[in-house]
Design goal:
- Helices cover 35% and strands 25% of the residues.
- By secondary structure, the protein is α+β, with helices and mostly antiparallel strands.
- Residues 211-231 have low confidence and may be disordered.
- The chain is built from six helices and eight strands; from the N terminus they run βββαββααβαββαα.
- It has one domain (2-208): ATP-grasp fold, B domain (D-amino Acid Aminotransferase, Chain A, domain 1, 2-Layer Sandwich), CATH 3.30.470.20.
- A hairpin with a 2-residue loop joins strand 7 and strand 8 (160-169).
- The radius of gyration is 18 Å and the shape is globular.
- It has helices at residues 39-59, 89-96, 100-109, 137-146, 174-188, 193-208, and strands spanning 2-6, 9-12, 33-35, 63-72, 75-82, 126-132, 148-157, 160-169.
């Protein structure tokens, strides 16, 4: 989870879930990561978010911090606080529409708002990042046309290519997202069957979650928001 702000005015970005802990060592970019409503876990987090905001005020944080946590038995256990943007920043932007990098520029220029309408970003989107095969130009073309594609990227480690895709949609469109992904997979075969099943199960859980009413997105003058498809 990421927090951005300065001068007592801080915004807590949505939680990014990275999967269960324990077991054999795993590589983050070979796992499904997502931001979606989880009613009980979200309720557990509200007090933690307030305490973290208080810490930012006390330390006079200016910029962005990333907080790594483990959630279990209704408790959040903080394991790291990193004073920087991170590998989760793109997901934070996709899930909230609040562009961390534009926020940092606002702070640099002295235009960061003194107050924000809410501690937690209640206006959120369903966002997920999953590993894919190295993408072809045709896949990227179709994904841009048919999905809200945030990013598709790859990098090399020890001669192996690791590729991933970040996508987002409104909560009300989660049920149709699955059909779009399956259609893309049938044409481009870019998702392993096990990962497609995992993504499908996540979307089913999200659609079944009792989602509270989310407020209208704040004005762009108050929150820098990237245009769709340009995150």
């Amino acid at each position: 989870m990421e927090i951005v702000g300065r001068g007592g005015s801080y915004v807590v970005q949505p939680l990014i879930w990275k999967g269960p802990t324990g077991g054999a060592p795993s590589f983050a970019f070979e796992q499904l990561r997502y931001s979606a409503p989880r009613r009980d876990a979200d309720a557990d987090f509200r007090r933690v978010a307030e305490r973290l905001r208080e810490l930012c005020v006390e330390l006079d944080v200016e910029g962005a911090i990333e907080v790594e946590m483990i959630h279990g038995d209704g408790q959040y256990h903080i394991i790291e606080i990193n004073p920087r943007v991170s590998g989760s920043t793109t997901m934070s932007i996709a899930a909230s529409g609040l562009n961390t990098y534009e926020c940092l520029l606002q702070m640099l220029l002295g235009t960061w708002p003194q107050t924000h309408p809410s501690l937690l970003r209640e206006w959120r989107r369903f966002a997920l990042q999953f590993p894919i095969v190295p993408p072809s130009a045709e896949l990227i073309r179709d994904a841009r046309r048919e999905l809200d594609l945030v990013r598709a990227s790859s990098f090399h480690i020890d001669g192996k290519v690791y590729a991933s895709m970040v996508i987002t949609c409104e909560f009300g469109n989660v049920t149709t997202l699955g059909a779009k992904l399956r259609s893309l997979c049938s044409r481009h075969d870019f998702l392993q069957p096990s990962m497609l099943a995992e993504v499908t199960n996540l979307m089913a859980r999200t659609a079944g979650e009792r989602i509270r009413t989310f407020p209208t997105p704040p004005a762009e003058a108050d929150y820098p928001v990237l245009a769709s498809g340009a995150r």
